[in-house]
Please model this.
Amino acid sequence: MSTISKPIILAIESSCDDTSAAVIYNGKVLSNYISSQAIHSAYGGVVPELASRDHQKAIVYVVEHALEQANVTKHDLNAIAVTRGPGLLGALLVGVSFAKALAQALDIPLIDVNHMQAHVLAHFIESPAPSFPFLCMTVSGGHTQLVLVRDYLKMEVIGQTIDDAAGEAFDKTAKLLGLPYPGGPMIDRLASEGNSDRFSFAKTNVGALDFSFSGLKTSILYFLQKELKKDERFIENNKADLAASIQKAILDMLFEKLGKAMKQESITQVAIAGGVAANKGLRKRLSEISEKNDWQCYIPQFEHCTDNAAMIAMVAHHKFLNNEFTGLDISPDPRMKL
Model:
């Protein structure tokens, strides 16, 4: 049992294409350093093998930089935390292996962290933070979930995508428009210049609180193919309106289910998390809907939406206080559930 009430923890994140390390002391983030990989833009998406190699190259420097920025040494640490999953197996393996080795060398506990739980707790890195219970819509390139958050470590997924994630829908439809990777931010940027009511697309409605974006992607694909047969410059001449209409369709699907979930759970506090939470259209829509429905909404800083170790550190802090440590025999879990 740990008797340390104000732990200093080093957290490591390597689930996809960002290598990140953070230091947290008594629940306050002292540093949060991120090294992003630019190599994937040439391939139109993250290449797992290249991601793993770049994590190997960056992880020592990233950890050293985070410690230096926090003005602590490795001997000051009380625990090492690391993302165990979900994510890319090879990328996770780099972070987990490094964390296990460092924890063993320093003879301090190891804490494994669920990446999706960390996205939710990103709201506690800075004030104001929501109080419990609240509903968090977590939207990223790999996940779309409605999470009922009862406490720091007590969460329940009450709705999720049954196929593609909203972030994937943004990126893949952006590719259909000829936009460079990552396409989601490009859609968001163009959408601000277009007419969101210009085009409409078929949407799939599944389950009470679940999502499905595969049908929407297919609808957009067929629509573009049909229009390009009539005018080969259709996309080029209508890019802003297409982006705005696509973004509206995705957001409509997200907020329809969010509204149902808020009503079902009788909750008035709502938050968003994940990489797509950086989408300006989504952030604006949430603010507007919250004001209309008298909800209290929480939107994280942009730097805490995308993958970062500060959110891993926040989960680790609460797991440390709860004496939730793991053994050095753990393996990465690329399909880890919340």
User: Anything to note?
Assistant: The mean pLDDT is 94. The domain at 8-121+305-321 is CATH 3.30.420.40 (Nucleotidyltransferase; domain 5). The beta strands are 8-13, 18-25, 28-36, 79-85, 110-114, 134-139, 144-151, 154-160, 269-273, 296-298. The chain has two domains: 8-121+305-321, 130-300.
